[in-house]
């Protein structure tokens, strides 16, 4: 027997050997600024649509800066695809009446799902200050939206603690307040360790939070950009990830392969730990999210491949 045989035999089974495609996914997009970006977004939407996600969401810029573009993107998805479109809505730089008017417009357009967030201030680095006539936080926003219409509502959760929270206990209390106000589920900010998610889920359960908590997955192809995102939301980037992407700045195809490998391993470990719902931050690109869904056993639904709503 070869001397290497025992070490090979000791390897665990392949990470994706037992996947059964028994997952639900959702995808997040941001509203495009240019015609070219809109083409890229729409191609991504069409690529991911046959996977029959639970919903797709469209972000809302800092200070409500993308309000018109967000609304137009959500309406187009709702009108021209089979997808359930969820609109992000924030508390920043708007009165309660203005926010409620936006919510009513969404309801009239057939949008039944809102991702309710406190939101980022329009100037990075400034602290959030609620308007005197606005909603003071995301929990109040959830309660207000529920009074407008019986929306399905998702909120944000922070496995490594929101940077504005004094500690993890206060952060969990804030999440519980959002759930108690009527939110249906929480979607986490991105993270890069399965233990990070499982510890957070256990802590949330211990704090009396019994709503669904969905891991948010960010397939990383640009570490510098991810570092910027992480600084804003309290996520940490492990040193080993920096090393993996060293020397790949001018090799986009290789960078994509590394990105897919890292994110797929994380999802595979979460799946092995019993997770069956995943939310992907696509950055308006379909390839990495699609590849990971494929590795997890998800396949296109044939009846949706050519489906487009016209009314």
Tell me about this structure.
- Helix 4 (96-108) packs across helix 5 (138-148) and helix 10 (252-272) packs parallel to helix 11 (287-295).
- It is built from eleven helices and eight strands.
- By secondary structure, it is α/β, with parallel strands linked by helices.
- Mean pLDDT is 88; it is low at 1-10 and 307-311.
- The N and C termini lie far apart (67 Å).
Question: What is the mean predicted local confidence, pLDDT?
Answer: 88
What would you call the shape?
globular
Total strands: the figure is: 8
Alpha carbon gyration radius? 20 Å
Uncertain residue ranges: 1-10, 307-311
**Approximate strand percentage:** 5-15%
Short description:
The protein has 311 residues and is α/β, with parallel strands linked by helices. It has eleven helices and eight strands.
Provide keyphrases for this structure.
eight-stranded parallel barrel, 42% helix, globular, disordered N terminus, disordered C terminus
Topology, pairings included?
Layout: H1 5-9, E1 24-29, H2 35-48, E2 55-58, H3 67-80, E3 85-90, H4 96-108, E4 113-117, H5 138-148, E5 152-157, H6 168-180, E6 185-190, H7 194-206, E7 212-217, H8 223-233, H9 239-245, H10 252-272, E8 277-281, H11 287-295
Parallel strand pairs: 1-2, 1-8, 2-3, 3-4, 4-5, 5-6, 6-7, 7-8
Helix pairs in contact: 4-5, 5-6, 10-11
């Amino acid at each position: 027997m070869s001397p290497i045989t025992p070490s090979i035999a000791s390897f665990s089974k392949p990470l994706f050997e037992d996947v059964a495609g028994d997952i639900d996914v959702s995808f997040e997009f941001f509203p495009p600024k240019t015609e070219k970006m809109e083409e890229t977004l729409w191609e991504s939407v069409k690529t991911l649509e046959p996977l029959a996600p639970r919903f797709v969401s469209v972000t809302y810029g800092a200070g409500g800066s993308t309000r018109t573009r967000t609304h137009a993107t959500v309406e187009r998805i709702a009108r021209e695809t089979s997808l359930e479109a969820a609109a992000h809505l924030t508390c920043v730089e708007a009165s309660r009446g203005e926010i409620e008017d936006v919510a009513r417009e969404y309801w009239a357009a057939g949008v039944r799902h809102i991702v309710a967030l406190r939101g980022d201030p329009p100037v990075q680095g400034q602290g959030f200050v609620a308007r005197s006539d606005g909603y003071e936080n995301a929990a109040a926003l959830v309660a207000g939206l529920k009074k407008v219409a019986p929306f399905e509502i998702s909120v944000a959760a922070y496995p490594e603690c929101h940077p504005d929270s004094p500690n993890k206990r206060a952060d969990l209390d804030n999440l519980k307040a959002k759930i108690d106000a009527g939110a249906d589920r929480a979607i986490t900010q991105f993270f890069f360790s399965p233990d990070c998610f499982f510890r957070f889920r256990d802590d949330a359960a211990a704090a009396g939070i019994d709503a669904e908590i969905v891991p948010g997955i960010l397939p990383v192809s640009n570490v510098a950009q991810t570092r910027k995102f992480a600084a804003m939301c309290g996520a940490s980037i492990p040193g080993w990830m920096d090393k993996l992407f060293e020397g790949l700045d001018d090799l986009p195809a290789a960078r994509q392969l590394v990105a897919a490998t890292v994110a797929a391993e994380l999802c595979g470990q979460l799946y092995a730990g019993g997770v069956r719902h995943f939310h992907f931050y696509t950055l308006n690109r379909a390839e990495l999210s699609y590849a990971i869904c494929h590795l997890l056993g998800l396949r296109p639904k044939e009846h949706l491949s050519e489906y487009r709503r016209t009314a």
